[in-house]
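User: I've been trying to design a sequence by hand for this structure and keep getting stuck. Would you show me what you'd pick, starting by listing the structure so we're on the same page?

Assistant: Good idea, let's start from the same input. This is the structure you sent:
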């Protein structure tokens, strides 16, 4: 069992995260004395579905200040009205976990605006696993806790995509055409770490552009994918670049493409970049590492790019990910090109080699050293 670096607030809050990221496990450990309501318990779910007021009646006798944990709140968003009442009238503290932001947003989650903070739980980061972290294994089978902790992580990973389709998509009726969505998923995985092309994805998946746009929104709303915007402060609207798209886990990407064998060299680039993107997001949510994030690709240099540009106040940090053990001059082109960006404080290249270096003001760091920078909050 690994200790998570997420620090829960003292007030009521939502804890959102993709399936298998360990929300229920964390909440059982963090709040052993709390009243736990698990909406995956079908009989309990059906009883509240039949009489929503029963939830209020059962909890209204708790002492003020008591903590109530509700798992999978997206299954019954109408409970939020009762949660609102219990916070206001009984001064109870609620911790509400969920794996779908879509149903909550559509069902009045704003009723709790100002009364419950929004927090996230992500796949493991290296700091949480300590000496057990293995980069090659992370790139191969991923860091989603349910897979990492399984006796047979590969078999669990294979089942994860089916669980996602069955429990998250089909049962919540998020799409009308499940076969079309199933065709879309492996194609979307091919675009992991690349600039998002809705038209190309729609063509390959044999569905309409608007349908694909909806599918990508579902990946974001069910918290298994995210967009990474381009930095374009001075570009006209027609010149603005499309965002990149990432899945939250390299193992998930490989499973969607049905790649279960040893890592191929051509896979590592986007998987390594995606892993760093996800780790950066985790530290943003857990420790407020930065304010905004982008990738950098100037309009007048189509082949020049920096993977990650983090903004903190008026300052920037540029980070490039390279999945090689040796560097060439071409690996540094993006970070050299961005050197004159106003407010740029630091340029870092993260790679798979063993040696720390400094080349023309660019810090070259092995992934382990970069991870330590994040864990020590010295980025």
């Amino acid at each position: 069992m690994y200790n998570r670096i997420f620090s829960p607030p003292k007030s009521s809050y939502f804890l959102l995260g993709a399936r298998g990221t360990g929300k229920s496990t964390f909440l059982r450990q963090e709040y052993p004395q709390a009243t736990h309501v698990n909406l995956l318990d079908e009989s309990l779910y059906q009883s509240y579905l039949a009489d929503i007021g029963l939830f209020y009646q059962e909890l209204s006798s708790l002492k003020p200040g008591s903590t109530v944990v509700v798992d999978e709140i997206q299954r019954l968003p109408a409970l939020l009205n009762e949660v609102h009442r219990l916070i206001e009238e009984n001064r109870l503290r609620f911790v509400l976990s969920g794996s779908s932001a879509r149903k909550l947003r559509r069902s009045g989650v704003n009723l709790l605006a100002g009364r419950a903070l929004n927090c996230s739980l992500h796949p493991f980061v290296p700091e949480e696993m300590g000496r057990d972290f293995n980069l090659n294994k992370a790139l191969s089978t991923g860091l989603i806790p349910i897979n990492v902790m399984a006796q047979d992580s590969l078999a669990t990973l294979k089942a994860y995509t089916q669980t996602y389709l069955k429990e998250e998509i089909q049962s919540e009726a998020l799409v009308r055409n499940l076969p079309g969505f199933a065709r879309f998923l492996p194609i979307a995985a091919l675009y992991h770490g690349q600039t998002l092309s809705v038209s190309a994805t729609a063509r390959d998946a044999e569905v309409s552009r608007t349908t694909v746009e909806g599918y990508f929104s579902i990946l974001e709303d069910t918290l298994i994918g995210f967009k990474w915007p381009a930095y374009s402060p001075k570009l006209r609207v027609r010149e603005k670049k499309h965002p990149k798209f990432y899945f939250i886990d390299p193992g998930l990407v490989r499973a969607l493409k049905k790649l279960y064998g040893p890592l191929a060299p051509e896979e590592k680039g986007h998987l390594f970049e995606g892993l760093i993107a996800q780790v950066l997001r985790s530290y943003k949510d857990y420790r407020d590492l930065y304010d905004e994030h982008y990738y950098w690709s100037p309009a007048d240099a189509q082949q020049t790019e920096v993977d990650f540009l983090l903004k903190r106040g008026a300052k920037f940090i540029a980070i490039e990910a390279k999945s090689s053990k040796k560097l060439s001059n071409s690996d540094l082109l993006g970070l050299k090109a961005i050197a004159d960006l106003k407010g740029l404080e630091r340029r870092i290249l993260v790679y798979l080699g063993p040696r720390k270096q400094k080349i023309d003001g660019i810090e070259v760091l092995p992934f382990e050293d970069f991870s330590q920078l994040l864990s020590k909050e010295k980025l």
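That's my pick for every position. To get oriented when you compare it with your attempt: The chain has a mean pLDDT of 90. Residues 130-268 form one domain.
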